[in-house]
Write a structure and sequence with these properties.
- By secondary structure, the chain is an alpha+beta fold.
- Among the domains are: 97-222, Beta-Lactamase; 507-659, Heat Shock Protein 90 (2-Layer Sandwich), CATH 3.30.565.10.
- The protein has helices at 12-93, 104-115, 147-152, 166-181, 227-237, 279-287, 328-364, 370-378, 393-463, 472-502, 515-533, 552-569, 627-637, and strands at 119-124, 129-131, 158-164, 197-207, 213-222, 242-243, 246-247, 249-255, 258-262, 292-298, 301-311, 317-326, 511-514, 537-541, 547-550, 575-583, 586-594, 641-647, 651-659.
- The radius of gyration is 39 Å and the shape is flat.
């Protein structure tokens, strides 16, 4: 900036000397201020950006690896459950082979087709073949070397995954089974890289009337080339098949280090059967017996991989189960998060640079003459900027300090206003998000009610024998499903109540009611199915025609929560009681049950939102931690209170007390 000054005659040498001395100082000060302010503005922004990018990358990678580990556990569980279901089916079918049946071959062939088994044979307790696909020359099955058959000789069905060598395959199914198990790496015209077969192997004992094992019905399903199994396991874990044209997830079963069943496709579109894992994976999983996780390039895409050992019933590692999770969705997520993070950081950095340059400019800008601004300052005109020429260094500093103070106050006020607006906008967004969440929660849980009720009705119909008599094993299986459906139904009601509560729709519409008829009897009837499923006897003590002023629907919700809680945590085959009594103006509803109870120090926390007691007795119980919280809110709406009592290991009791007639408010 150029500054014009009037120079008296005879003063030129002196002013030239002053200009020569101070001009470098002013220029140097500006340079230092600009460099310093830019450093203060940009270095923190750069550090924040670098730390944020690193944290996002680490978090996304950790989340992705955690997901693939969870998927591996889900696949392992589904694998075991499908094997167990097949074993149960064969155990039920084995009842068709009795001591007097003669056409064993026809029955065995029929069972094998019905259960889609690769091989199914019958031998006596000494291992001599009776019927099935044994070669005619076979003399004896080596029962002692087969852990599944050896265990079945004890009189109970046994199953597991086993590895049968070519000789054993010849014994059980002849050349056809040997041929079906061979694995080639590429063209079948070459030498097979594996001749052994990995099978789901099941054995069911055929007992005499005395209980002695007379024969064994055994066989299994070949896992080599079992694409249906790996596709079903993949569909169990991955709800979406593809992402941008690439499989979102893959599942593979290995015989030792060789792929024998997979949905990984090679470049020509064929299943990648016969390929092997890396040496690191083979050593970690097969030799050390540990899980392995890492990244791998599968065909032309990167996958997050997880392997776990596959062991036979004797504990020997015979293969692996693999789950691969496509990395691309997480890369996209990471890029989006980084972009959304860096955009505001960059914007803040630019604003900081602009603010820094603005402040430097204000500090180094020449001011006008003090005499022209003094009168305005004397009248309190603080909005008027003081300008002092460059030659007056002391006055320039004074004016700069004043201008900086005024600018800082104005800027701080603007920032506070901006922050208030941002906070207001953020609060509005949070309120809208919470409303959307509660609406979604209410909609989803409401939509779950009808399917769950239909499932319960269908299972009850089958258990009661309306569709035909079922075996005790199947009945027990259905009963467990029925109990799980009841627990899910209870959780659905809890979440519906929470949705109404959070949206402010859970209001008390009080009216005169008969508590025993409109609340107690209806709630007990509604919860009866929970108690029947656990064989718990319920007794009710309630005065007839007990008049109160309350909301019957809310009280039914509260009492139903107490009852389902007693059914869930009460001891099976035990007792529960519902006791209603009136003391003065207070009505108290109490639900007591035999059971493990809870520690006294946890009594007050039971009515907190989402709180659940975590111990070895309750970890298997489903629950939302919402029911008792809802009860407390219902008690508050009725001007009452709730509390819980327990004797650990013996009983637990929950109480709801409220005025029979609410006080009249002015």
């Amino acid at each position: 900036m150029t500054v014009w000054t009037c120079i008296p005659p005879g003063r030129m040498p002196y002013l030239d000397l002053m200009t020569a001395c101070y001009a470098p100082i002013f220029m140097s000060l500006r340079t230092v201020l600009v460099a310093g302010m830019l450093a203060v503005a940009l270095i923190p922004a750069a550090l924040i950006g670098a730390i944020g990018v690193y944290s996002i990358n680490k978090s996304v990678r950790s989340e992705a690896q955690s997901r693939v580990n969870q998927d591996l556990e889900i696949v392992g569980t589904a694998y075991r459950e499908q094997l167990a279901r097949l074993a149960y089916s064969l155990e039920i079918s084995s009842s068709r082979i009795g001591p007097t049946v003669e056409n064993f071959a026809e029955i065995i062939s029929s069972i094998r087709r019905e259960l889609d088994l690769t091989v199914l044979n019958l031998c006596d307790a000494e291992g001599q073949p009776i019927a099935g696909s044994h070669p005619a020359t076979l003399q004896r099955i080596p029962l002692g070397r087969d852990p599944v058959l050896r265990k079945a000789l004890e009189g109970r069905s046994a199953w597991g995954t086993v590895l049968l060598d070519p000789e054993r395959l010849q014994m059980e199914g002849g050349p056809a089974l040997q041929e079906a198990a061979q694995i080639y790496n590429g063209d079948k015209g070459g030498e097979p890289i594996s001749r052994a077969g990995l099978l789901w192997w099941i054995a069911c004992p055929i007992l005499e009337s005395s209980g002695r094992v007379k024969a064994l019905l055994y066989g299994g399903r070949l896992l080599n080339f079992n694409y249906e199994l790996v596709d079903k396991l993949r569909d169990t874990v991955f709800s979406e098949a593809e992402f941008k044209g690439k499989p979102r997830g893959t599942v593979t079963i290995f015989k030792n280090e060789v792929r024998i069943a997979t949905n990984v496709l090679s470049r020509d579109g064929a299943r990648a059967i016969g390929t092997k894992v890396s040496e690191t994976v083979r050593r970690t999983v097969l030799e050390e017996g540990m899980n392995y996780t890492g990244e791998a390039l599968v065909v032309d895409a990167w996958y997050l991989s997880a392997y776990k050992p596959l062991r036979d019933p004797a504990g020997k590692t015979i293969g692996m189960v693999y789950v691969g999770l496509l990395r691309a969705p997480y890369d996209d997520m990471q890029d989006n998060l980084i972009a959304w993070f860096l955009i505001p950081v960059g914007a803040v950095g630019l604003l900081a640079v602009y603010a820094a340059l603005y402040i430097v400019n204000r500090i180094t800008r020449p001011v006008r003459a003090l005499s022209q601004s003094a009168s305005r300052l004397a009248t309190g005109d603080l909005e008027h900027a003081i300008s002092i020429p460059h030659t007056y260094l002391e006055l320039k500093k004074l004016a700069g300090a004043f201008a900086e103070m005024r600018t800082a106050i104005r800027k701080r006020d603007q920032e506070l206003r901006a922050r208030n607006e941002e906070l207001s906008l953020t609060n509005t967004k949070l309120e809208q998000s919470n409303r959307n969440y509660m609406q979604t929660l209410g909609f989803v849980t409401h939509e779950l009610k009808a399917p769950l009720a239909a499932i319960q009705m269908l299972i009850a119909t089958m258990v009661d024998g309306y569709l035909g008599k079922v075996s005790p094993q199947v009945s027990d299986f259905f009963t467990r499903i029925q109990r799980n459906c009841e627990e899910l139904q209870d959780m659905v009601r809890d979440y519906l109540d929470l949705s109404r509560l959070e949206r402010g729709e859970l209001l008390a519409n009080k009216s005169p009611i008969d508590l025993s008829k409109t609340v107690v009897e209806m709630a007990v009837d509604q919860a009866a199915v929970f108690f029947r499923s656990r064989n718990i006897t319920v007794s009710v003590s309630c005065p007839d025609k007990l008049p109160v002023v309350a909301d019957p629907s809310l009280l039914r919700i509260a009492l139903n929560n107490f009852l389902t809680n007693a059914a869930k945590y009460g001891c099976e085959g035990g007792k529960a009681t519902v006791n209603v009594k009136m003391e003065g103006e207070l009505v108290t509803l109490t639900v007591w049950n035999e059971g493990e109870g809870f520690p006294p120090e946890e009594a007050d926390r039971l009515f907190e939102k989402f709180f659940r007691i975590r111990n070895s007795k309750t970890h298997a119980k489903r629950g939302s931690g919402i029911g008792l919280f809802t009860v407390k809110n219902i008690a508050d709406l009725h001007g009452g209170q709730v509390w819980a009592e327990s004797e650990p290991g013996a009983w637990a009791a929950f109480h709801l007390s409220f005025p029979a007639t609410p006080p009249v408010t002015a």
